[in-house]
Amino acid sequence: MTTSPEKQSRGRVLIVDDEKVILDLTAIILKNRGYQIFTALNAREGLATIESERPELVLLDYMMPDMDGLTALKEIRRRFPETYVIMFTGKGSEEIAVELMKAGASDYILKPFNNQDMVERIESVLKLRAVELQNRALLSERERLLAEIAQWNRDLEERVQEKSEALRRAQAEIVQSEKLATLGYLSAGMAHEIRNPLNSIALFVQLIRSGLEDPERLDYVDKILKEVDRIDGILRKLLDAAKRPRFEISEVRVDRILENTLEAFTPQLRQKKIKVVTDFRSIPPAIKADPMEIEQIFTNLFLNSIHVMEEEGTLAVQLDQDDHYINMRVSDTGPGIPPENLPNIFDPFFTTNSRGTGLGLSVVLRIVKTYKGKIEVEKSDSSGTTFSVRLPLTPQ
């Protein structure tokens, strides 16, 4: 291989020809025109030169020993697509010309050639190469930009979806807060209006009771008083769901509240042969709260879980924490909450239990929101339901 000086090079050209006279003559002509020249006497040497020097153009002889020009042309186009090829051929048939162009030649020059014609063809091919490479680069840049825009669109759609979901949750919380506020207003009035006649009923029934001796009638009176107490209990629950009653803040260990509440449910759990699985992954520090309120959260969640499960179900309780929240999960193996009911489960008086008041989860929601926490149904399907409760580690 030989090379000419690189001074003011108009391009890098490799000449591959097994006839040294033509090789040297072509090299002189092109070198005088300002091209940087490389030469090779056979196709294999030429391929090695392309590998190391990466010329823009190759003048390749069609008839060569060992590896012919057509085979070399196909190899060049396969391995070095940015190197263009002009074929030298002494056979001027149209079939050969078509075969060469199909194989990837940019042009072909018949031997013997005219010097000026050869130079003009070389310049034309180099200009074509520059345009095609530029177009290829532009297409590549276009594809890159289109891919980038597509990614931006996907990111934007994800962000819009996230923001829409956050807005939906915020709107749901606002609606829920408005419901609780309305409930508070109504329940305060209802409690006052109902308790006055209720107290009168209880007083008169007790007076009647004091003058009775018939056991059957005394039993009727006791039943009336029990129903009065039941109505009063419903009113108390209604008030608890709507507004915060008297409370006493102290240092509360959530893990101990959980354990004590589970222990209180031991008879019901044994009766239905429900297995309890506790997973206290970490024991969070004490938080400032009213212990009765925290207990109410778990009491209502455990009651719901026990109610919906058949015998030999599983009640799972998980406790963990991160940098900002205590995270609790209560799971059951019940039938799950129907999807159409999920938006309403925290609404006051919404219940599918004929004996329930529909105030339990409303109370839980009110307490959790009082502590600036969060509660949601994390999962609900035929395998069961999981409630997630998050309470801040520090008071807000």
Write up what this structure looks like.
The chain is α/β, with parallel strands linked by helices. Among the domains are: 12-113, Response regulator (Rossmann fold, 3-Layer(aba) Sandwich); 247-392, Histidine kinase-like ATPase, C-terminal domain (Heat Shock Protein 90, 2-Layer Sandwich), CATH 3.30.565. It is 54% helix and 17% strand. It has 10 helices and 12 strands. It has helices at residues 20-32, 43-53, 69-79, 94-103, 115-210, 215-242, 254-264, 266-271, 291-308, 360-370, and strands spanning 12-16, 36-40, 57-61, 84-89, 107-110, 250-252, 275-280, 287-289, 314-321, 325-331, 374-381, 384-392. The strands form 3 sheets. It has a 5-stranded parallel beta sheet with strand order 2-1-3-4-5, sandwiched between helices. A 5-stranded mixed beta sheet has the order 7-9-10-12-11, covered by helices on one side. Helix 4 (94-103) links the parallel strand 4 (84-89) and strand 5. Helix 2 (43-53) runs parallel beside helix 3 (69-79), helix 5 packs antiparallel against helix 6 and helix 6 (215-242) packs parallel to helix 10. The radius of gyration is 44 Å and the shape is rod-shaped. The mean pLDDT is 86. Pfam families: HATPase_c (PF02518), HisKA (PF00512), Response_reg (PF00072). Residues 189-395 form the Histidine kinase domain.
